[in-house]
Amino acid sequence: MKYDFKKIEEKWQRRWQRDKTYSVRPDSKRKKYYCLEMFPYPSGKIHMGHVRNYTIADVIARYKMMRGFNVLHPVGFDAFGQPAENAAIKNNTDAEAWTLKCIEWMKAELKRMGFSYDWGREISTCLPEYYRWNQWIFLKMFERGLAYRKASSVNWCPSCETTLANEEVIDGGCWRCKNEVAQKELEQWYLKITEYQERLLEDLNQLSRWPERVVAMQKNWLGRSEGVEIYFKAKDSGQTIPVFTTRVDTIFGATYIVLAPEHPLVKQLIKGRQQEKQDLDFISKVAKETKVARASQDVKKEGVFTGAYAINPVNNEEIPIWIADYVLMEYGTGAIMAVPTHDQRDFLFAKEHNLPMRIVIRGSEDQNIRAEDLSEAYEADGVQVNSAQFDGLPNNEAKVKIAEWMEQKGIGRRVVNWRLRDWLISRQRYWGTPIPIIYCSKCGIVPVPEKDLPVELPRKVKISGEGGSPLGKVKSFVEVKCPKCGSAARRETDTMATFFDSSWYFLRFCSPKDKKEIFNKGEAKHWMPVDQYIGGIEHAILHLLYSRFFTKFFKDLGLIDFNEPFVNLLTQGMVLKEGEVMSKSRGNVVDPDGVIGKYGADTLRLFILFAAPPEAELEWDDRGIEGSSRFVSRLWRLVEASSQARVKAGPDNKDLARKTHSVIKKITDDMEGGFKFNTCIAACMELVNEIYKSVGDKVEIKSKTESAAVRALVCLLAPFIPHLAEEMWQMLGEKGSVFKSGWPSYEEGMLKADIAAIIVQVNGKVRSKVEVSPDISEEDLRKAVLSDEKVRQWVKDSPLKKIIIIPGKLVNIVV
Fold it and tell me: What is the SS3 assignment for 493?
């Protein structure tokens, strides 16, 4: 019978759906396992990145099912966001209709891959039954002072009358109309995530099963640093310019200070000076750059002189005040002291603009080096020089003494600084969760009463991308009565950032149909935290940070009793083709639909899992998918032969039995020790080869050992190729699902060979091979080797210098 993958896969997909095979409820008799991948944005079609992420999760979920766990493996759609709004504009359609249509397309493709989702728990963040709870969370944060409004700068297109994300600003212009983008101050909503910064940092210590790289990225983003805030004075006005530094030991080497272009003092400092227009042009230019590009080490740093000077408080030296793109308001005070001899960015900037340099820390090997001779900044430890009364001190000791001295003189103070800033959640968009706030001329800012939730998005709103917020033009939405006094009032027309939606969805999956609560406490207590979370490294900072923040907030509300949402984290590598990430713009996309149509979903899954370890990048290779297809066909032939065999007796194949038990052990160890899917599949391939050696070219199953090996193979491969495994399990005469059959076990006693073949060398050259018991003692092994006929021919009467034994493998006789 031919392996008809299309027929088999469709059959089992229908049966899983009919029988609700993967639908779960809490079960106190079985240990729970919550497996979750970062839910997809519904773009309409899945790509190979999706296939890899979701296949990895599916294998883990199915493996845990076979190990007896009660597995929760839900799915949903991160369905709000700017791409749908842009698609609605481009296609002249409705954002909701577009999104729901994309979800249906994507669901069909996910089901075609055979993923073990509990579809009864499906959620879509764009539906009111979900986003009403976004609004509930916002109100709870507002009650506790964690949600607040303040003015902040945004990219503004005057032509389209709309805000733009940084990525929508191309060469300083609007991506849509190409007109120049300006900066505009808008009142926007923030969440006070900084209230949780200590806990967010401290609880990273609990995440021992997260990749070290991700934990480091989280720590870096939080950016806790201990240092000194130094009070420089503007020469003309005497106004204080606070500067934060972690290297107070270098203060005597500060030869200029640099302000962020957004610093509130900048316009005051440059006003009326000769450089004013040049400086304003520079500020406008930098405002259009992303903060990531500005902070990058690889990009040349640009700056302009303000014309103003500051006084260094430790030596009363006048030093120039510059503005530069590499200084950000988000870090410290938005001002730095520049010490070009001991900071590489300052060094490069000083060289570019011919600014003065002074060495204040000298290494033991650089006693006579001058500042002008440096080819790079000296950032290592050393001894203080040119540092007044602190000369001769080791710089780490000087850090403490200089800080104490500055505090005594009132020219600085020791502080702890954080890189983390509060989270801006306002978006001037239509397709997002409406912020549940009403503005009343009498009562001010009034939260929408909980009983009036959800504040629903109006339907069929025309989105042009021009003329300001789409919601602001919907009179029936904007104009309301004040809940407090009944006067005419207006709704907030900003919507929430989509990161809000994805910061707690994992909790909603525990009880997605609950209409009375955000989630059922009992269900959340049973299922949470997530045992295994899987997603791309690109979400290693913001999504995970916000999810951790929300979890701690829910704990403060008394809704949960744990600190962290995800116990284990796996960040899968990208899928590449010809060394580059697949993308339409590069023309190197491989369409999963085409591969499934030609080879089947199981073969695609097998290749994706075999080609590279989950954390590594995967290079797409057409030859690899062909190889996976051949392997599946070989496996099918074995199972078909086994299903037709009538084995009553037959010679036992001890080598095959030992190999079967060895493979079961290896795959079990590799799954439990970090999901090494590629080595698991490789072990199955070895077992297939071993079975073929036993059954011959005619593929005749002659013994129970061969039948048992085939049966074990089907179970071992079931998480990887689920449709085919279900079909083969049925072919072998088994009842029920293979995923309820249990995981194969091995016997320790079967892992040892009955006979060990020992290579014998004489003076380093192979001269014989002896077969002995694996448990033979060294003394008996010596006797067996020396009595071997071939060995005796080479040794003869030569005196023995020594005998070297490598247990179980080799004996080398030196004569």
Answer: coil
